[in-house]
Structures are given as structure tokens and as C-alpha cells.
Design brief:
Length: 263
């Protein structure tokens, strides 16, 4: 079992009035894989909040062994130790919206909500105060944003994002599973975007980056690391597992540790 690597970032929040730090652990793309080592890593880094940027399970997990036990078990254990905020990825959304299997997703979600997990499915949580504003929003995109067919894929408009989440507020963290739409997220007003989806490009090459993305797209953008658009920063996780392509090359499993600081 490969180790889980913590990858550290520090993000300045100029609008905060008090010194101090809020530490976020950001997870994505477990895809119902084994998560050995994750809890020890998080215990060592001691986050204040755990944020999930989608795809902890696979679509239609109810009918594919080991069902949703690994994704559920991982998230439930997290909730026993830390506050957990969970935004859906394309696999959760597909599972929820398929009429043949949505009962399984409802079961999965209800069970986690009983454990205290807060689902941010086109919803926001205001965790700050007047001196230190902090809003975490979770964006659930449609299948037209996740399709691998270039001619059919359509970026979300700023108006669509605002219709789902309302206007942005300071300091706004956006959990958006798909990182390809950084320009739209920035135009909406996100201060920090946390994403995944590309699994780090499956394999990584020096000076090149990620090799392949969903739909076998070669050298996709935004596969891992920190990106900027105007005043918006986006951190993309290489994720915790695999899905269609069951290997990772020079691309260790990753949890993001993001420290929010005044300066």
C-alpha cells in the first residue's frame, strides 16, 4: 500500500483582523479505494476542518463490491474526529441522479449526516465572524460540465454559479470538483478554490506535469498544485485513489494541508 503524502500550502487572508491560523485538510477522489495511512497522517497534522472535494465513492456503488463501504467508512471515521464538509464530485452526482440507484446514494448520505458530516450540495456554510469571515461553499456541476466530449462540454456561466450559490462573500472558499473552470470560479468571486478530479494526471513527468486526464485527455491543465486567476487561487489535489485507470506513476496519493493565515 503506497503512502499518503501531505502537501502543504499557506494562503494569506488579508481581510482577517486577528492573527492565528485555520488548518484545512482537503481530500478528494478516494473512489472507494483503501485509505490506509490517511488517519495517521491527519492525526499528525491536526487540522481544524476536513473538506472533501468530491468522488469519495464511485457512481452506482450500490451494485459494485465493496459497495460504498470504503468511502463511507473513511468519511465516517473522519467525522468522529473533525468537522467534515463534503461537496459532491461527478460520481456522487451521477449516482444521486440515476433513477435506478439513487436510493443507494440517499442511504449513503443519510448515514453520513447522522455522523455529523455536512453536505454542501450547492450550499454554503458560514464559519467565520465579523473579524475573520470564512464561508465554505460546495458547487455541484451538471453532466454537461463533466462530459469528456469536447463539443458537448459547456463551462458553467457566472450567472449559473450565482443562481446555485448566491453572490460570493469574503472570505469565500469554493469546493468545486472540476478544476477546468478556474476563470468562471474567479469571475464569480471565489477567493480560494479547492478541486480534484484529474487524479494528478495519473502519471507525472518532470517539467511536463500530469500525463492523462479523464476521457484519456493528454496533458490536461490543472492536474495538481497551485494556480492563480486574478485574485483567485486554486489548489488541485492529486487525490487519494484511482478509478478508470488503476495506476499512479510518480504520483503519490495526496492530502492537502492548507493553512489560512492573516499574513
Amino acid at each position: 500500500m503506497s503512502l499518503i503524502h501531505p502537501h502543504f500550502y499557506m494562503i494569506e487572508v488579508p481581510c482577517w483582523q486577528r492573527p492565528g491560523r485555520v488548518r484545512l485538510a482537503v481530500l478528494s477522489d478516494l473512489h472507494n479505494n483503501i485509505y490506509g495511512g490517511l488517519m495517521k497522517t491527519l492525526e499528525r497534522e491536526s487540522p481544524d476542518l476536513v473538506l472533501i472535494a468530491g468522488d469519495m465513492v464511485n457512481r452506482h456503488t450500490k451494485i459494485t463490491p465493496p459497495r460504498f463501504t470504503r468511502g463511507y467508512g473513511c468519511t465516517a471515521k473522519l467525522a468522529e474526529r473533525w468537522p467534515v464538509y463534503y461537496a459532491p464530485g461527478n460520481h456522487e452526482s451521477t449516482w444521486e441522479n440515476d433513477g435506478n440507484y439513487r436510493a443507494g446514494y440517499a442511504q449513503y448520505r443519510r448515514a453520513l449526516e447522522k455522523k455529523g458530516v455536512v453536505f454542501l450540495d450547492n450550499a454554503s456554510a458560514d464559519l467565520g465572524d465579523e473579524e475573520n469571515p470564512l464561508v465554505i461553499s460546495g458547487l455541484a456541476l451538471g453532466k454537461e460540465q463533466f462530459t469528456h466530449h469536447r463539443g458537448k462540454r459547456r463551462p458553467p456561466s457566472v450567472g449559473e454559479i450565482e443562481a446555485l450559490l448566491g453572490p460570493s462573500r469574503p472570505f469565500e472558499i469554493l469546493l468545486a470538483h472540476h478544476p477546468a473552470y478556474l476563470k468562471e470560479y474567479a469571475a464569480w468571486g471565489a477567493d480560494l478554490v479547492l478541486a480534484g478530479h484529474y487524479h494528478g494526471g495519473q502519471g507525472r513527468l518532470p517539467a511536463v506535469g500530469g500525463v492523462v486526464g479523464p476521457g484519456f485527455q493528454l496533458f490536461p491543465p490543472y492536474t495538481k498544485g497551485l494556480y492563480e486567476e486574478g485574485g483567485t487561487k486554486m489548489i488541485v489535489s492529486a487525490g487519494l485513489g484511482t478509478h478508470t485507470i488503476p495506476f499512479r506513476v510518480f504520483n503519490p496519493r495526496e492530502v492537502l494541508i492548507v493553512d489560512l493565515v492573516k499574513e
